[in-house]
Protein backbone atom coordinates (compact mmCIF):
# COMPACT_ATOMS: atom_id res chain seq x y z
CA UNK A 1 0.00 0.00 0.00
CA UNK A 2 1.39 3.38 -1.01
CA UNK A 3 1.05 6.13 1.60
CA UNK A 4 1.87 9.81 1.31
CA UNK A 5 4.64 10.25 -1.25
CA UNK A 6 4.74 13.96 -2.15
CA UNK A 7 8.07 14.95 -0.63
CA UNK A 8 10.89 17.09 -2.01
CA UNK A 9 12.78 13.82 -2.54
CA UNK A 10 9.93 12.70 -4.80
CA UNK A 11 9.92 15.96 -6.77
CA UNK A 12 13.70 15.78 -7.27
CA UNK A 13 13.52 12.14 -8.40
CA UNK A 14 10.08 10.53 -8.79
CA UNK A 15 11.31 7.38 -10.52
CA UNK A 16 11.89 5.16 -7.45
CA UNK A 17 8.31 5.97 -6.45
CA UNK A 18 7.07 5.14 -9.95
CA UNK A 19 8.81 1.77 -9.70
CA UNK A 20 6.95 1.16 -6.45
CA UNK A 21 3.66 2.14 -8.10
CA UNK A 22 4.24 -0.28 -10.98
CA UNK A 23 5.38 -3.18 -8.78
CA UNK A 24 3.07 -2.82 -5.79
CA UNK A 25 0.08 -0.60 -6.59
CA UNK A 26 -0.58 -0.26 -10.34
CA UNK A 27 -3.97 1.33 -9.66
CA UNK A 28 -4.69 2.73 -6.20
CA UNK A 29 -6.71 5.40 -4.43
CA UNK A 30 -4.52 8.13 -2.93
CA UNK A 31 -5.99 9.67 0.21
CA UNK A 32 -3.28 12.32 -0.05
CA UNK A 33 -4.59 13.50 -3.43
CA UNK A 34 -8.20 12.28 -3.25
CA UNK A 35 -7.68 10.65 -6.63
CA UNK A 36 -6.85 7.39 -8.35
CA UNK A 37 -3.21 6.91 -9.37
CA UNK A 38 -2.80 4.82 -12.55
CA UNK A 39 0.71 3.80 -13.66
CA UNK A 40 0.90 0.85 -16.12
CA UNK A 41 1.51 1.88 -19.73
CA UNK A 42 -1.42 -0.11 -21.11
CA UNK A 43 -3.87 1.49 -18.67
CA UNK A 44 -2.48 5.00 -19.10
CA UNK A 45 -2.82 4.74 -22.88
CA UNK A 46 -6.34 3.30 -22.57
CA UNK A 47 -7.42 5.91 -20.04
CA UNK A 48 -6.21 8.86 -22.08
CA UNK A 49 -8.10 7.46 -25.08
CA UNK A 50 -11.31 6.58 -23.22
CA UNK A 51 -14.57 8.34 -24.06
CA UNK A 52 -15.96 7.55 -20.58
CA UNK A 53 -13.33 9.70 -18.87
CA UNK A 54 -13.78 13.46 -19.14
CA UNK A 55 -11.21 16.20 -19.47
CA UNK A 56 -13.84 18.91 -19.07
CA UNK A 57 -14.63 18.18 -15.42
CA UNK A 58 -11.03 18.33 -14.22
CA UNK A 59 -11.02 21.89 -12.95
CA UNK A 60 -14.25 21.33 -11.03
CA UNK A 61 -12.80 18.21 -9.44
CA UNK A 62 -9.42 19.81 -8.75
CA UNK A 63 -11.00 22.83 -7.05
CA UNK A 64 -13.69 20.90 -5.17
CA UNK A 65 -11.91 21.47 -1.83
CA UNK A 66 -12.30 25.25 -2.18
CA UNK A 67 -15.09 26.96 -0.27
CA UNK A 68 -17.61 29.12 -2.13
CA UNK A 69 -15.76 32.19 -0.88
CA UNK A 70 -12.44 30.84 -2.17
CA UNK A 71 -13.98 30.09 -5.56
CA UNK A 72 -15.04 33.73 -5.77
CA UNK A 73 -11.60 34.87 -4.64
CA UNK A 74 -9.88 32.72 -7.29
CA UNK A 75 -12.50 33.17 -10.01
CA UNK A 76 -10.08 34.67 -12.56
CA UNK A 77 -7.71 31.69 -12.63
CA UNK A 78 -10.56 29.15 -12.48
CA UNK A 79 -12.37 30.88 -15.35
CA UNK A 80 -9.15 31.01 -17.39
CA UNK A 81 -8.32 27.34 -16.88
CA UNK A 82 -11.88 26.21 -17.58
CA UNK A 83 -11.46 27.66 -21.08
CA UNK A 84 -8.20 25.79 -21.84
CA UNK A 85 -8.42 23.26 -24.67
CA UNK A 86 -7.00 20.51 -22.45
CA UNK A 87 -9.91 21.01 -20.05
CA UNK A 88 -12.54 20.71 -22.80
CA UNK A 89 -14.44 17.77 -24.22
CA UNK A 90 -16.05 17.58 -27.68
CA UNK A 91 -17.68 19.50 -29.26
CA UNK A 92 -16.03 22.56 -27.66
CA UNK A 93 -12.62 20.86 -27.73
CA UNK A 94 -13.05 20.09 -31.44
CA UNK A 95 -13.96 23.70 -32.23
CA UNK A 96 -11.03 25.22 -30.31
CA UNK A 97 -8.47 22.77 -31.65
CA UNK A 98 -9.60 23.29 -35.24
CA UNK A 99 -9.07 27.04 -34.99
CA UNK A 100 -5.37 26.71 -34.13
CA UNK A 101 -4.44 23.46 -35.85
CA UNK A 102 -3.40 25.17 -39.12
CA UNK A 103 -0.55 26.89 -37.31
CA UNK A 104 0.82 23.56 -36.06
CA UNK A 105 0.83 21.46 -39.24
CA UNK A 106 4.15 19.80 -40.18
CA UNK A 107 4.50 22.28 -43.05
CA UNK A 108 3.96 25.28 -40.76
CA UNK A 109 6.41 23.95 -38.19
CA UNK A 110 9.08 23.18 -40.82
CA UNK A 111 8.84 26.78 -42.01
CA UNK A 112 9.87 27.83 -38.50
CA UNK A 113 13.17 25.93 -38.64
CA UNK A 114 15.39 28.82 -39.89
CA UNK A 115 13.93 31.13 -37.24
CA UNK A 116 14.58 28.61 -34.49
CA UNK A 117 18.15 28.05 -35.68
CA UNK A 118 18.78 31.81 -35.58
CA UNK A 119 17.27 32.15 -32.10
CA UNK A 120 19.41 29.27 -30.82
CA UNK A 121 22.62 30.68 -32.29
CA UNK A 122 21.85 34.20 -31.03
CA UNK A 123 21.27 32.89 -27.50
CA UNK A 124 24.50 30.90 -27.54
CA UNK A 125 26.36 33.92 -28.91
CA UNK A 126 25.05 35.93 -25.94
CA UNK A 127 26.44 33.30 -23.58
CA UNK A 128 29.71 33.61 -25.46
CA UNK A 129 32.81 32.64 -23.50
CA UNK A 130 31.37 32.88 -19.98
CA UNK A 131 33.08 30.42 -17.67
CA UNK A 132 29.69 29.00 -16.68
CA UNK A 133 26.05 29.69 -17.47
CA UNK A 134 22.58 28.80 -16.23
CA UNK A 135 21.09 26.77 -19.06
CA UNK A 136 17.54 27.40 -17.81
CA UNK A 137 17.62 31.18 -17.41
CA UNK A 138 19.92 31.86 -20.36
CA UNK A 139 18.81 29.27 -22.89
CA UNK A 140 16.15 26.61 -22.29
CA UNK A 141 13.50 29.12 -21.20
CA UNK A 142 14.44 31.88 -23.62
CA UNK A 143 14.32 29.61 -26.68
CA UNK A 144 10.65 28.59 -26.42
CA UNK A 145 9.79 32.08 -25.17
CA UNK A 146 11.23 33.66 -28.33
CA UNK A 147 9.56 31.07 -30.54
CA UNK A 148 6.15 31.52 -28.90
CA UNK A 149 6.43 35.32 -29.01
CA UNK A 150 7.18 35.13 -32.75
CA UNK A 151 4.42 32.60 -33.40
CA UNK A 152 1.78 34.52 -31.46
CA UNK A 153 2.83 38.06 -32.31
CA UNK A 154 3.78 39.12 -28.77
CA UNK A 155 6.72 41.55 -28.44
CA UNK A 156 9.85 39.70 -27.28
CA UNK A 157 10.47 42.23 -24.51
CA UNK A 158 7.42 40.77 -22.71
CA UNK A 159 9.01 37.30 -22.42
CA UNK A 160 9.77 37.65 -18.71
CA UNK A 161 6.19 38.70 -18.06
CA UNK A 162 5.05 35.60 -19.93
CA UNK A 163 7.32 33.46 -17.76
CA UNK A 164 6.00 35.04 -14.57
CA UNK A 165 2.43 34.44 -15.70
CA UNK A 166 3.16 30.86 -16.79
CA UNK A 167 5.03 29.98 -13.58
CA UNK A 168 2.28 31.51 -11.47
CA UNK A 169 -0.39 29.54 -13.27
CA UNK A 170 1.73 26.37 -13.06
CA UNK A 171 1.67 26.75 -9.28
CA UNK A 172 -2.08 26.24 -9.54
CA UNK A 173 -2.66 23.98 -12.54
CA UNK A 174 0.38 21.68 -12.25
CA UNK A 175 0.85 21.51 -8.48
CA UNK A 176 -0.04 18.58 -6.27
CA UNK A 177 -1.07 20.85 -3.42
CA UNK A 178 -2.65 24.20 -4.24
CA UNK A 179 -2.07 26.41 -1.21
CA UNK A 180 -4.03 29.61 -0.71
CA UNK A 181 -0.83 31.54 -1.40
CA UNK A 182 -0.31 29.78 -4.76
CA UNK A 183 -3.96 30.19 -5.68
CA UNK A 184 -3.89 33.90 -4.85
CA UNK A 185 -0.74 34.44 -6.92
CA UNK A 186 -2.13 32.42 -9.85
CA UNK A 187 -5.29 34.50 -9.73
CA UNK A 188 -3.23 37.71 -9.83
CA UNK A 189 -1.28 36.36 -12.82
CA UNK A 190 -4.54 35.47 -14.60
CA UNK A 191 -5.84 39.00 -14.10
CA UNK A 192 -2.56 40.61 -15.15
CA UNK A 193 -2.17 38.48 -18.28
CA UNK A 194 -5.80 39.09 -19.26
CA UNK A 195 -5.40 42.86 -18.98
CA UNK A 196 -2.32 42.79 -21.22
CA UNK A 197 -3.79 40.40 -23.79
CA UNK A 198 -7.11 42.21 -24.18
CA UNK A 199 -5.18 45.38 -25.03
CA UNK A 200 -2.98 43.41 -27.46
CA UNK A 201 -6.05 41.95 -29.18
CA UNK A 202 -7.41 45.45 -29.76
CA UNK A 203 -4.08 46.56 -31.25
CA UNK A 204 -3.91 43.54 -33.56
CA UNK A 205 -7.46 44.08 -34.78
CA UNK A 206 -6.43 47.58 -35.86
CA UNK A 207 -2.98 46.63 -37.19
CA UNK A 208 -2.76 42.87 -37.83
CA UNK A 209 0.55 41.16 -38.48
CA UNK A 210 1.69 37.83 -39.90
CA UNK A 211 1.13 35.80 -36.75
CA UNK A 212 -1.31 33.41 -35.11
CA UNK A 213 -2.96 35.99 -32.85
CA UNK A 214 -3.76 38.33 -35.72
CA UNK A 215 -5.54 35.47 -37.46
CA UNK A 216 -7.42 34.45 -34.33
CA UNK A 217 -8.66 37.93 -33.39
CA UNK A 218 -10.06 38.41 -36.92
CA UNK A 219 -12.65 35.67 -37.29
CA UNK A 220 -15.04 37.40 -39.65
CA UNK A 221 -15.48 34.16 -41.60
CA UNK A 222 -16.16 32.07 -38.48
CA UNK A 223 -19.79 31.21 -37.72
CA UNK A 224 -18.88 30.69 -34.05
CA UNK A 225 -15.88 32.96 -33.32
CA UNK A 226 -13.82 32.84 -30.15
CA UNK A 227 -14.78 35.19 -27.36
CA UNK A 228 -12.07 37.36 -25.82
CA UNK A 229 -12.11 35.14 -22.72
CA UNK A 230 -11.55 32.07 -24.89
CA UNK A 231 -8.75 33.88 -26.73
CA UNK A 232 -7.06 34.84 -23.47
CA UNK A 233 -7.26 31.27 -22.20
CA UNK A 234 -5.96 29.91 -25.50
CA UNK A 235 -2.93 32.22 -25.52
CA UNK A 236 -2.14 31.57 -21.85
CA UNK A 237 -2.32 27.82 -22.47
CA UNK A 238 -0.09 28.05 -25.54
CA UNK A 239 2.72 29.91 -23.83
CA UNK A 240 2.32 27.82 -20.66
CA UNK A 241 2.57 24.57 -22.64
CA UNK A 242 5.30 25.93 -24.89
CA UNK A 243 7.48 26.97 -21.98
CA UNK A 244 6.91 24.04 -19.66
CA UNK A 245 7.32 21.30 -22.25
CA UNK A 246 10.35 22.59 -24.14
CA UNK A 247 12.16 24.23 -21.24
CA UNK A 248 11.92 21.01 -19.25
CA UNK A 249 12.78 18.80 -22.22
CA UNK A 250 16.04 20.65 -22.96
CA UNK A 251 17.09 20.77 -19.31
CA UNK A 252 16.24 17.12 -18.66
CA UNK A 253 18.04 16.10 -21.85
CA UNK A 254 21.28 17.83 -20.86
CA UNK A 255 21.17 16.24 -17.41
CA UNK A 256 20.59 12.78 -18.91
CA UNK A 257 23.52 13.19 -21.30
CA UNK A 258 25.80 14.52 -18.56
CA UNK A 259 24.92 11.51 -16.40
CA UNK A 260 25.44 9.04 -19.27
CA UNK A 261 28.78 9.92 -20.90
CA UNK A 262 28.80 6.74 -23.01
CA UNK A 263 25.50 7.77 -24.61
CA UNK A 264 26.83 11.29 -25.14
CA UNK A 265 29.87 9.81 -26.90
CA UNK A 266 27.58 7.82 -29.23
CA UNK A 267 25.71 11.02 -30.03
CA UNK A 268 28.86 12.96 -30.83
CA UNK A 269 30.12 10.12 -33.01
CA UNK A 270 26.82 9.91 -34.86
CA UNK A 271 24.76 13.15 -34.85
CA UNK A 272 22.02 11.35 -36.77
CA UNK A 273 21.04 9.96 -33.36
CA UNK A 274 19.90 13.42 -32.20
CA UNK A 275 16.27 12.66 -33.06
CA UNK A 276 16.53 9.40 -31.08
CA UNK A 277 18.11 11.26 -28.16
CA UNK A 278 15.21 13.71 -28.01
CA UNK A 279 12.64 10.89 -28.07
CA UNK A 280 14.55 8.89 -25.48
CA UNK A 281 14.67 11.92 -23.18
CA UNK A 282 10.92 12.32 -23.59
CA UNK A 283 10.55 8.73 -22.38
CA UNK A 284 13.35 8.60 -19.82
CA UNK A 285 12.72 11.94 -18.09
CA UNK A 286 9.57 13.55 -19.46
CA UNK A 287 8.81 17.18 -18.69
CA UNK A 288 5.12 16.23 -18.46
CA UNK A 289 4.54 13.62 -15.75
CA UNK A 290 0.79 13.10 -15.67
CA UNK A 291 -2.54 13.89 -17.23
CA UNK A 292 -5.85 13.69 -15.42
CA UNK A 293 -9.42 12.74 -16.19
CA UNK A 294 -12.74 12.51 -14.35
CA UNK A 295 -14.95 9.42 -14.63
CA UNK A 296 -18.20 10.27 -16.42
CA UNK A 297 -19.85 7.04 -15.20
CA UNK A 298 -19.32 4.17 -12.79
CA UNK A 299 -16.92 1.68 -14.33
CA UNK A 300 -14.33 -1.03 -13.77
CA UNK A 301 -10.84 0.16 -14.61
CA UNK A 302 -7.60 -1.68 -13.95
CA UNK A 303 -9.34 -4.06 -11.56
CA UNK A 304 -10.81 -1.25 -9.46
CA UNK A 305 -14.36 0.07 -9.08
CA UNK A 306 -14.26 3.67 -10.30
CA UNK A 307 -17.23 5.84 -9.34
CA UNK A 308 -18.74 8.59 -11.45
CA UNK A 309 -16.98 11.85 -10.57
CA UNK A 310 -13.77 10.18 -9.34
CA UNK A 311 -10.58 12.07 -10.19
CA UNK A 312 -7.91 9.97 -11.95
CA UNK A 313 -4.23 10.77 -12.45
CA UNK A 314 -2.61 8.91 -15.36
CA UNK A 315 1.08 8.79 -14.53
CA UNK A 316 2.92 9.38 -17.80
CA UNK A 317 6.32 9.29 -16.11
CA UNK A 318 5.58 5.86 -14.64
CA UNK A 319 4.07 4.48 -17.86
CA UNK A 320 7.25 5.40 -19.72
CA UNK A 321 9.20 3.20 -17.26
CA UNK A 322 6.87 0.21 -17.46
CA UNK A 323 9.02 -2.91 -18.10
CA UNK A 324 5.97 -4.59 -19.62
CA UNK A 325 6.17 -2.05 -22.45
CA UNK A 326 9.84 -1.03 -22.71
CA UNK A 327 12.87 -3.31 -22.67
CA UNK A 328 15.39 -2.12 -20.05
CA UNK A 329 13.06 0.78 -19.30
CA UNK A 330 15.36 2.15 -16.58
CA UNK A 331 18.28 2.57 -19.04
CA UNK A 332 18.88 5.76 -21.04
CA UNK A 333 19.66 4.57 -24.57
CA UNK A 334 20.05 7.05 -27.44
CA UNK A 335 19.93 4.13 -29.89
CA UNK A 336 16.51 2.99 -28.68
CA UNK A 337 14.23 2.78 -31.72
CA UNK A 338 10.99 2.22 -29.81
CA UNK A 339 9.30 5.64 -29.79
CA UNK A 340 6.18 4.58 -27.95
CA UNK A 341 6.26 6.98 -25.02
CA UNK A 342 3.11 8.82 -23.96
CA UNK A 343 4.84 12.06 -22.97
CA UNK A 344 2.70 14.14 -25.33
CA UNK A 345 -0.48 12.40 -24.26
CA UNK A 346 -2.75 10.19 -26.34
CA UNK A 347 -6.05 10.41 -28.16
CA UNK A 348 -7.85 13.66 -28.95
CA UNK A 349 -5.79 15.57 -26.39
CA UNK A 350 -2.44 14.62 -27.92
CA UNK A 351 -0.26 17.73 -27.61
CA UNK A 352 -0.83 19.92 -30.67
CA UNK A 353 2.57 21.57 -30.17
CA UNK A 354 4.53 18.29 -30.08
CA UNK A 355 6.16 18.78 -33.53
CA UNK A 356 7.32 22.27 -32.51
CA UNK A 357 8.75 21.08 -29.17
CA UNK A 358 10.59 18.25 -30.92
CA UNK A 359 12.04 20.59 -33.54
CA UNK A 360 13.22 23.10 -30.93
CA UNK A 361 14.86 20.33 -28.90
CA UNK A 362 16.64 18.82 -31.91
CA UNK A 363 18.02 22.18 -33.07
CA UNK A 364 19.02 23.11 -29.51
CA UNK A 365 20.81 19.81 -28.88
CA UNK A 366 22.73 19.95 -32.16
CA UNK A 367 23.92 23.50 -31.43
CA UNK A 368 24.85 22.75 -27.81
CA UNK A 369 26.90 19.73 -28.86
CA UNK A 370 28.74 21.90 -31.39
CA UNK A 371 29.45 24.66 -28.84
CA UNK A 372 30.32 22.53 -25.78
CA UNK A 373 33.28 20.16 -25.83
CA UNK A 374 31.78 18.38 -22.83
CA UNK A 375 28.67 18.64 -20.66
CA UNK A 376 29.64 19.29 -17.06
CA UNK A 377 26.94 20.19 -14.56
CA UNK A 378 28.12 22.35 -11.68
CA UNK A 379 26.95 22.90 -8.12
CA UNK A 380 24.39 23.66 -6.88
CA UNK A 381 22.73 20.44 -8.00
CA UNK A 382 19.48 20.87 -9.95
CA UNK A 383 16.39 21.39 -7.81
CA UNK A 384 12.89 20.77 -9.11
CA UNK A 385 9.72 22.69 -8.22
CA UNK A 386 6.91 21.04 -6.26
CA UNK A 387 4.87 20.37 -9.38
CA UNK A 388 2.98 17.11 -9.79
CA UNK A 389 2.39 17.45 -13.54
CA UNK A 390 5.60 19.11 -14.74
CA UNK A 391 9.25 18.18 -14.32
CA UNK A 392 11.96 20.71 -15.08
CA UNK A 393 15.07 21.94 -13.24
CA UNK A 394 14.71 25.43 -11.80
CA UNK A 395 18.36 26.14 -12.60
CA UNK A 396 21.06 24.18 -14.40
CA UNK A 397 24.59 25.53 -14.15
CA UNK A 398 26.90 24.23 -16.88
CA UNK A 399 30.61 24.78 -17.34
CA UNK A 400 31.19 26.52 -20.67
CA UNK A 401 34.01 24.49 -22.24
Detailed description of the structure:
The chain is an alpha+beta fold and 401 residues long. The protein has one domain: Cytochrome p450 (Orthogonal Bundle), CATH 1.10.630. 53% of the residues lie in helices and 8% in strands. The chain is built from 19 helices and 9 strands. The strands form 3 sheets. A 5-stranded mixed sheet has the order 1-2-8-5-3, with helices on both faces. A two-stranded antiparallel sheet has the order 4-9. β6 and β7 form a beta hairpin. The longest helix has 32 residues. The relative contact order is 0.18. The mean pLDDT is 91. Belongs to the cytochrome P450 family. Keywords: Heme, Iron, Metal-binding, Monooxygenase, Oxidoreductase. One of its GO terms (molecular function) is monooxygenase activity.
Low-pLDDT regions = none
CATH superfamily annotation: Cytochrome P450
Run of helices and strands:
HHEEHEHHHHHHEHHHHHHHHEEEEHHE
Second rung of CATH, namely the architecture: Orthogonal Bundle
What characterizes the major β-sheet?
5 strands, mixed
Total number of beta strands: 9
* Number of helical segments with 4 or more residues: 19
Write the layout of secondary structure elements.
Elements: H1 8-12, H2 15-24, E1 27-30, E2 35-38, H3 41-49, E3 53-54, H4 58-62, H5 68-73, H6 75-82, H7 92-101, H8 106-111, H9 113-127, E4 132-134, H10 135-140, H11 142-152, H12 159-173, H13 180-206, H14 212-217, H15 228-259, H16 261-269, H17 274-284, E5 290-295, E6 299-301, E7 304-306, E8 311-315, H18 316-319, H19 354-371, E9 397-399
Parallel strand pairs: 2-8
Antiparallel strand pairs: 1-2, 3-5, 4-9, 5-8, 6-7
Amino acid sequence: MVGNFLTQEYFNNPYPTYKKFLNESPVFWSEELSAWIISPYELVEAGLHSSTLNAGERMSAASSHFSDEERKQYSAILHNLNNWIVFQDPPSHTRLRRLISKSFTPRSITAFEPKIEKIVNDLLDEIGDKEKFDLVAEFSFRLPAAVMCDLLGIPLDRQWDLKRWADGIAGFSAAARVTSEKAKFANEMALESRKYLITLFEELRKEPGDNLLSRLVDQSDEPNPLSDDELVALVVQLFFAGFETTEGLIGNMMIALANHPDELAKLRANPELITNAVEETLRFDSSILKQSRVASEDQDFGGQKIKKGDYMHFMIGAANYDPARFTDAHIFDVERDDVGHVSFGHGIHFCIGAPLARLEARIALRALLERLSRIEILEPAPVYPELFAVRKPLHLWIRNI
